[in-house]
Amino acid sequence: MKRALFRRKWSAAIGGLISAIVLMSAPTPLRGQTLRSGPTLRFGVAGISGSNSHPFVSKQLGLFNKHNVDVELVAFQGGTQLVQAMLSGEMPLGLIDGPPILAANLGGANLVFIAGNVNTFPYNIVSKSEIRSAQELKGKKIGISRFGSASDTSTRLTLEREQLRPDKDVTILQIGGQSERFAALRAGAIDATIVSPPFNLVARRLGFRDLIDISETGIAYPHLHVAARRDFIERYPEQASRFLKGFIEGTSYWKDSAKKELITGAVARFLKLDRDKDREQLDETFRYYGKIFPSRPYPSADGMEYALEVLKKSRPDAKNLRARDYISNRFIDELDKEGFLAQVFRGQ
Questions:
Q1: Whole-structure pTM over 0.85, yes or no?
Q2: In the predicted model, what is the mean pLDDT of the chain?
Q3: CATH number for the domain running over 124-216
């Protein structure tokens, strides 16, 4: 009885939390603190999630203002909307994964990656408790969001690394968002699914097994990179550099245990969590993303090459694209040479 009540409470909490994170409507400004006077730099994020909380945290902690750049954060439902805003000229910078930007460049866009923030897949595969190893997924069903998505790509790559053949050894089913995938897992319609931390904790609470942390597999992928309009960084390089200073100093906070309360407090506001009741999720968010955010935030060349290979499978006209043509290391190189990276990370 107690166990059933516990699970019902967690199910309600999951539904509310996931709804707050994934059910976004129109692009919405994310208000942190009062903007300083002067021109405002608009920066887009593709959805509300633990990983996307990073720029909001930097803003909340005043790190953009510290480096004399006013930033307005705008949330979109997904990468397609964000790319459209960038192409319209409304959004000079955005935090997004590789394929939508590469696909836009096929259509004549001139977008470039200037920093990497998540250079792998930040997902976990969770399963029924009786599945104790990746090999025991053979003959089973895994739920993803939709075919062609990052959840699909990362699941297939992970299975291949475990010597399992996607769609042959393991059936991959298109289920929908995380709430739908949890429901399917609980109902027994699937045997495993893929989630973004801290929702792996939700799976544990519901009695499922945290089977594979994909971020630890060594798979390179441009999951979250800072993309920019090339005309913007050519006309306003100083503003782009100041933005990256605030963004990167914010990254260093995630790697400093002394800053944990500052980070989790800002994340709680971003994800609409309760700092006391949801302490475990907030702690896991800080631990997990502090681990995978890079202290040398270069765009991932290897990851971009893989993203391009994925794109070529659906877009034959991408055969002549070269990933390196859409990476600019100039800003990170400059910050590295002037000692900024060493200063903020202090050997982390």
A1: no
A2: 86
A3: 3.40.190.10
